[in-house]
């Protein structure tokens, strides 16, 4: 591995014009494709194998032409104080609004509040339901403007008018904080390298990689039915790992220059050593993201695969374009320790003068910290585990759900419509349950419909049940059920299960099958499916990555320690998410206007992404320790040496990744905001507590046992030479690394 990448790095350095041209051409091609592609569609929440999805599919078959997946809107009217919606003037305004909405070219139907029993008991609130032929993201802008204009004209009469539903759904925005995150990353890079040129290389390559990845996703969005959130998450992860991977290689390049190597050779060795760590770190991220497919939720699978593709591009760019750009930069990228004019030129020379005078060089912060941990490993280990355990305590109160209009900011018309409907009709009105009765196998379909309706009406937690509405064939009917609790509550979830349990008894009596669907039931099924898939997903991802890390580190205990440390950091991060988004701690600072259940896909998504990112730091930091150990240092000294060369870079990489993720906290999409915060805090816990404290403490306690591997397994495993031992052997022999590759064993 190291020898192949060494040759690749030298080739890219020499043929830099060709390499740069290829990547620029790919960026241009992806950009043209994105510019000519139609807008991204809605994110699919289909969940194969669940009752809600089965009922939804049955509706499309038995009720053709009703646009089951079409956009919907609820135009909610509230009368002024002292008036009612049944007053002649207010009624005339509503009927005029309904007529205007019905004229739309994409409108399938509009329900008049006065003929559809859509006026509250006290007469103060009414609503008109609008159904469209196409989904919310496919609606023409003119249709959305017509909806907004109709509501505005009704407001001019003195009514309070708000619009709920997904018809006004907009593409989520990330806000200015994303730019701030990139700016923080730039500052950290400048401080790390002391040079604008060296700092600019990781940023430039990361932006090119993300540009190619996100543009490709945009270009394929229509064909693959990718939601708009997919590209945002790919951008989030692609930026973070793209900067980090390039940072690792540039840092190693400067270290090789400091040892007196020629620039082309230094580029090759940087790619051969740090590049090997980048390859395996990238593989763990890709495994974790692609592994989301085991959940069998198409939306989550597409998000994972798209983000994994962006990570793969980041790896390829780091291995090829970074050495090419280093060739262009020439002497403007200085050896490690030699600062440019920006942060004080000549500091490196002063260090060299002190060395010549016999004065020992001052140990850097990473060396001093590692030495401290090696001296007191047990105390550091206990303190770190107790701290992460305390942070994880709120996770025991984790409540899962999917966002609806009730989680929107109070400044939005969707949220205000949600609150008006709750005020006028009760909290459960915003999450009605649709019961589908399939009586095709029943001898008396009408009696089956009536029995289902009567059975549901007698259940606890039910406010209203509409009469059965059969299809033209008379073999299927829909019944709308209004709970007395809000959509995301435990009581509503219990009601869904109660209806399904009652349906089993009814099917035994009548032969009619009862299914529960609707957005509320769909969300409940999504949460349950994600919970059921979490353990198999953990086993798959952690198992595959564990095997991969055994190959990298040639050890059993080091990969095991890496996996256990990851579990600690992800549990602590989930605890922080619960504290902020569910309990409301620091919610104002984070821009969280409404607390509530944590997004149901958050735990499994965080497990996938954080595991991959955590292994980045594990691979880069521990490979330097492994490299020192293989070259003859004692285990405790190898830990210190690994921190001497890697702590500064890992710290900078973690700060950069945190800044990039935190930049997405400003998103208007609650899911993106939550994921941005969760990933940022998870990186903090994993990089600064687990990798920088627990890892050296555990390795110091294990000593030589940390690098133990059964001899039979050592012979069976392939020799990937991540530490670059083949390069060192060739250097000592004064020969080409390729000639000595077969002589090297790790």
What structural class should be given to the helix and strand makeup? alpha+beta
Q: Please, what is the average pLDDT?
A: 82
Q: Tally the helices: what do you get?
A: 24
Question: Can you tell me the residue ranges where pLDDT is under 50 for at least 5 consecutive residues?
Answer: 345-358, 738-746
Classify the helix fraction into a percent range.
55-70%
Outline type? elongated
The major β-sheet equals: 5 strands, antiparallel
Estimated share of beta-strand residues: 5-15%
> Number of DSSP strands?
11
Rg over CA atoms, rounded to whole Å, is 30 Å
Report how far the terminal alpha carbons are from each other.
Answer: 12 Å
Please specify the SSE layout and strand pairing:
Elements (H helix, E strand, L loop, with lengths): L1 H13 L1 H21 L14 H12 L9 E7 L9 H15 L4 E5 L13 E8 L8 H15 L4 E6 L11 H17 L2 H29 L3 H31 L4 H28 L7 H32 L17 H10 L8 H11 L1 H16 L7 E2 L11 H13 L7 E6 L6 H13 L4 E4 L3 E2 L5 E8 L6 H21 L2 E5 L1 H35 L3 H26 L4 H4 L7 E2 L2 H29 L4 H28 L7 H33 L8 H6 L8 H9 L13
Parallel strand pairs: 5-11
Antiparallel strand pairs: 1-3, 1-4, 2-3, 6-9, 6-10, 7-9, 8-9
């Amino acid at each position: 591995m190291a020898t192949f990448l060494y040759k690749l790095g030298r080739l890219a350095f020499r043929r830099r014009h060709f390499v740069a041209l290829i990547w620029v051409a790919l960026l241009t091609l992806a950009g043209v494709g994105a510019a000519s592609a139609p807008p991204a569609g809605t994110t699919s929440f289909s969940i194969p194998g669940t009752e809600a999805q089965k009922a939804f599919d049955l509706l499309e078959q038995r009720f053709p032409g009703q646009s089951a997946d079409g956009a919907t809107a609820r135009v909610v009217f509230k009368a002024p104080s002292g008036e009612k919606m049944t007053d002649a003037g207010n009624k005339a305004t509503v009927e005029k609004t309904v007529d205007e909405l019905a004229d739309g070219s994409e409108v399938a139907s509009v329900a008049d509040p006065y003929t559809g029993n859509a006026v509250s008991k006290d007469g103060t609130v009414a609503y008109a339901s609008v159904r469209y032929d196409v989904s919310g993201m496919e609606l023409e802008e003119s249709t959305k403007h017509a909806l907004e204009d109709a509501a505005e004209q009704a407001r001019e009469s003195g009514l309070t008018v708000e619009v709920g539903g997904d018809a006004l759904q907009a593409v989520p925005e990330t806000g200015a904080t994303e730019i701030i995150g990139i700016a923080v990353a730039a500052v950290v890079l400048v401080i790390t390298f002391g040079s604008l040129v060296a700092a600019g290389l990781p940023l430039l390559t990361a932006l090119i990689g993300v540009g190619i990845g996100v543009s490709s996703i945009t270009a394929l969005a229509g064909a693959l039915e990718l939601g708009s959130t997919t590209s945002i998450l790919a951008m989030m992860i692609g930026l973070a790992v793209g900067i980090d991977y390039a940072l690792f290689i540039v840092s190693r390049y400067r270290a090789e220059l400091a040892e007196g190597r020629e620039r082309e050779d230094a580029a090759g060795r940087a790619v051969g050593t740090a590049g090997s760590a980048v390859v395996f770190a990238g593989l763990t991220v890709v495994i974790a993201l692609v592994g989301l497919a085991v959940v069998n939720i198409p939306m989550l699978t597409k998000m994972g695969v798209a983000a994994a593709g962006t990570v793969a591009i980041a790896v390829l760019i780091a291995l090829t374009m970074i050495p090419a750009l280093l060739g262009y930069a020439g002497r403007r990228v200085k050896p490690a320790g030699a600062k440019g004019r920006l942060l004080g030129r000549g500091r490196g020379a002063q260090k060299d003068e002190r060395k010549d005078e016999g004065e020992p060089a001052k140990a850097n912060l990473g060396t001093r910290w590692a030495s401290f941990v090696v001296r007191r490993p047990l105390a550091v280990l206990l303190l770190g585990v107790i701290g992460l355990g305390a942070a994880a305590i709120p996770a025991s109160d984790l409540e899962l759900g999917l966002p609806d209009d009730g989680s929107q900011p109070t400044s939005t018309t969707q949220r205000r419509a949600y609150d008006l409907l709750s005020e006028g009709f009760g909290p459960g009105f915003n999450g009605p349950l649709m019961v589908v009765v399939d009586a095709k196998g029943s001898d008396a379909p009408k009696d089956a419909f009536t029995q289902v309706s009567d059975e549901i009406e007698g259940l606890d937690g039910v406010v209203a049940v509409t009469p059965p509405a059969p299809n033209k064939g008379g073999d299927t009917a829909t019944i709308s059920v209004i709970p007395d609790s809000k959509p995301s509550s435990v009581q509503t979830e219990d009601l869904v299960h109660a209806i399904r349990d009652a349906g089993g008894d009814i099917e035994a009596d009548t032969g009619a099958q009862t299914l529960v669907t609707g957005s509320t039931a769909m969300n409940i099924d999504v949460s349950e499916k994600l919970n059921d898939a979490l353990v198999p997903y953990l086993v798959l991802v952690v198992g595959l990555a564990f095997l991969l890390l055994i190959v990298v580190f040639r050890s059993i205990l080091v990969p095991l320690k890496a996996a256990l440390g990851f579990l600690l950091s992800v549990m602590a991060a989930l605890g922080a998410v619960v504290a902020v988004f569910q309990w409301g701690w620091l919610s104002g600072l984070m821009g969280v206007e409404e607390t509530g259940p944590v997004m149901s896909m958050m735990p499994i998504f965080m497990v996938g992404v954080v595991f991959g990112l955590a292994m980045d730091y594990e691979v880069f930091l521990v490979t330097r320790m492994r490299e020192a150990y293989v070259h003859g240092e004692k285990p405790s000294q190898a830990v210190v040496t690994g921190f001497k060369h890697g702590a500064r870079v890992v710290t900078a990489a973690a700060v950069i990744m945190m800044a990039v993720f935190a930049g997405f906290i400003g998103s208007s999409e609650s899911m993106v905001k939550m994921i941005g915060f969760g990933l940022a805090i998870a990186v903090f816990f994993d990089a600064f507590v687990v990798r920088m404290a627990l890892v050296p403490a555990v390795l110091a306690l294990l000593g030589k046992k940390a690098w133990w591997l059964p001899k039979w397994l050592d012979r069976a495993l392939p020799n990937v030479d991540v530490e670059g031992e083949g390069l060192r052997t060739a250097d000592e022999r004064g020969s080409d690394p390729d000639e000595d590759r077969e002589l090297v064993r790790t």
